[in-house]
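Researcher: Next sequence.
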Amino acid sequence: MKNLEHALQYTEDTQNELIQLIKDLCAIPSFSHHELKKAQFIQNWFAKLGVEAVIDEKYNVIVSIDAEDKDQLTVFMAHIDTVFPDETGFECVEEDGWLCAPGVGDDTTNVAELMLIAKYIIENKLSCPQGCLIVFNSCEEGLGNLDGSRYLMDTYKDRVHEFYSFDGGYKGIVCKAVGSVRYEVVVKTEGGHSYGAFGNRNAIALASSMICTLYDYKVPTRGKSTYNVGVIEGGTSVNTIAQEVKFMFEVRSDEREDLFEMKQFFESVINAYRCMGIDVEVNLLGERPCMGDVDLDHLQNILTHVAEIIEHHTGNLPTLHSGSTDCNICYDRGVAGCCFGGYEGKGAHTRQERVELNSLPVGMKILMHFMLGYFE
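Model: Next structure:
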């Protein structure tokens, strides 16, 4: 492959720059729907290279390379939001061979590696015959609801031919979409004083009963399906019959039929409690699609190629598995691609998250090797 040896040497030579960039990015707060500061940092970083990076309505940062008038674009992306709602950033510290900070791996390291690979491509004036979009996207986490990748696909529609999300590590490849539906359920009653109005309905008791009913459900078995109550809040005081309780509930599956069946069961439980005269309000918080009609031969060719590159640099074949990533949107719309990343670490989605420093040169080589196949 033309330029490969030179490009891989670049990944070695820029490790200090990579680590500093990861630290700089970690220091910028960037939870879902609040990514503007990080988007502007990335935009300004590219501006110093003389490159226009556009921030769209959803705070995606887009660098277009040879994309004008092309109808088979390749998308390379890494998400800039973190799962933590902190309004201040995080200090990223080096400790015993690790980089440590909330969000340092998911997905800050992949963002930084993609930025530096884009810099190499730009400074070496490489061209992309089919055209590509290098995207630092918003709203991948939680209630971000994949709004960044969704908006991107809505904008470019059938011009997107292949779609790659750099997220997570390089020991596994996400090649099947886990769909999900997230709800907020609000239970309301008349409430009252715990002694004077004893016998009135208690929203906490009713919500608890409803949750127990939801947890009695036996999930379908065509694929892997799960459910979860993740948040519950309500009530006033120990001597007050609760008037209102809210809880968040989700269902997930990597099979469309199974997800549909779980949605139906949830709705049947809600209707049953309403039929008992209970005031139940349901708000849809987010919905991520399952797998669509993707060309399986095209997808298999991609997976084989990615796996070969990972094996070449690590000596091990990656595992293939389902997951909930930005690729859910492309898969739903029939576009082939996959999700993998450029590091190894521990503690994703915890405040003890850390990335193994020794994994960074290997991971960046994998991403560089893969992306360079689209350039000349």
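Model: Residues 104-123 form the longest helix (20 residues). The first strand starts at residue 54 and ends at 55.
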